[in-house]
Amino acid sequence: MYPDHTHQPPVMRAVEVHRLTPLPPAIAVPAPVVPVQPGTVPAVASVVLPDGRIVTGYAVAPAQPEPVMVKPAVSRTAVNAALGGVGFLAVCGGLLLLTSFIAALTAFISQLIILAAVIFGGWIAAQVLGPSGHQGGTTVNIRKAVFKRNHFHG
Questions:
Q1: Which end of the chain has less neighbouring CB within 10 Å, N or C?
Q2: d(CA 48, CA 46)
Q3: Strands 146-148 and 54-58: what pairing?
Q4: Contact 47, 55 (CB under 8 A)
Q5: In this predicted model, what pLDDT tens digit does every residue of 76-126 receive, in sequence order?
Q6: Dist CA 137 CA 131 (whole Å)
Q7: In 3-state terms, what secondary structure has residue 69?
């Protein structure tokens, strides 16, 4: 891969220089002319210059300017504003529906809570005010209670 290291001096080679030689004008071959038949023969125009020379050539059609883009009847800003307004109304309508739904859900939950309180309260009232397990009223045992040194002895 690498050249072997030899202790010989490098070999001198002769350098050849190549110079281009131009062709004489007589030898130059013109490009072949290909006849082209136009659909119509263009008109030839002659113009007299102020110094008296006459220039003859084909008439050139004037350059057509690039077509200008026709502006739409409604500006893009107006269209964007209208679309933004429609989108805003759609969002507002959705938010209104969402708010109405949340309000209805809140009312429903509060009615369920009130219904549960009424039913639970009625059950508690029935337990307290209803007939108890023994008949004949409340029985109270009265005994003589003795308190000595702030302790109850029954």
A1: N
A2: 7
A3: unpaired
A4: yes
A5: 888 888 888 888 888 888 888 889 999 999 999 999 999 999 999 988 888
A6: 10
A7: coil
Question: In whole angstroms, what is the distance from residue 132 CA to residue 126 CA?
Answer: 10
Phi and psi angles of residue 77, each rounded to the nearest 5 degrees, phi first? -60, -45
Closest C-alpha to 117, from 129, 127, 106, 125: 125
User: What six digits make up the tokens of 45?
Assistant: 């125009």
Q: How many CA atoms lie within 13 A of 27 on its CB side?
A: 4
Beta pairing partners, 48? 54
Q: Check if the beta carbon of residue 119 is closer than 8 Å to that of residue 126.
A: no
Strand partners, 55: 47
The owner of tokens 């030689």 is 21
* Nearest residue to 42 via CA among 57, 32, 27: 57
Report the C-alpha gap between 3 and 69 in whole angstroms: 71
pLDDT in tens, 128-151: 887 665 555 566 666 676 666 666
Question: What distance in Å separates the CA atoms of residue 26 and residue 20, rounded to the nearest whole number?
Answer: 18
Give pLDDT, residue 109.
96
Residue carrying structure tokens 């113009």: 47
